[in-house]
Amino acid sequence: GTTQTLIAANLVSGVVLLNAGASGPLTATLPKTGDIIAALPASVPLDGTYHERITFVNNGIGQPATLVVGDGGTTIIGPAIIGSNVARTYLMRVLGSASISLQNLGQLPL
Question: Which one, of 37, 31, 29, 38, lies nearest residue 3 by Cα?
């Protein structure tokens, strides 16, 4: 398989494109929680009230992509597998200064 570490700035832009050809199933590792929070505007509250949508697009790489957390401060709630030619959306909530969650909202075929 192939492993790709995602960049915090791409994550908080709202859309992450998975375009690289994978030699097998792709593992997409999220950035460390602190890096994700640091990439957000300084005005973002750290009390669980801030959220934004992030869509991961598996743009026909021919393999499924699995999201994995970069450290223990991030939790993925619901399916973490993004099939080939599928866009899966998550609601990212900032739960504290060192904690976020990604709640699966569903997927759409491309």
Answer: 29
Q: What is the C-alpha to C-alpha distance for residues 103 and 79, in angstroms, rounded to an integer? A: 9
Q: Which residues pair with 55 in a beta bridge?
A: 15, 89
Q: What is the DSSP string of the chain?
A: -EEEEPPHHHHHTSEEEE-SPPSSSEEEEPPPHHHHHHHS-TT--SSS-EEEEEEEEE-S-SS-EEEE-SSTTEEEES--EE-TTEEEEEEEEEEETTEEEEEEEEEEE-
Q: Among candidates 45, 110, 51, 40, which has minimal Cα distance to 82? A: 110
pTM: 0.94
4-18 pLDDT per residue, tens: 899 999 999 999 998
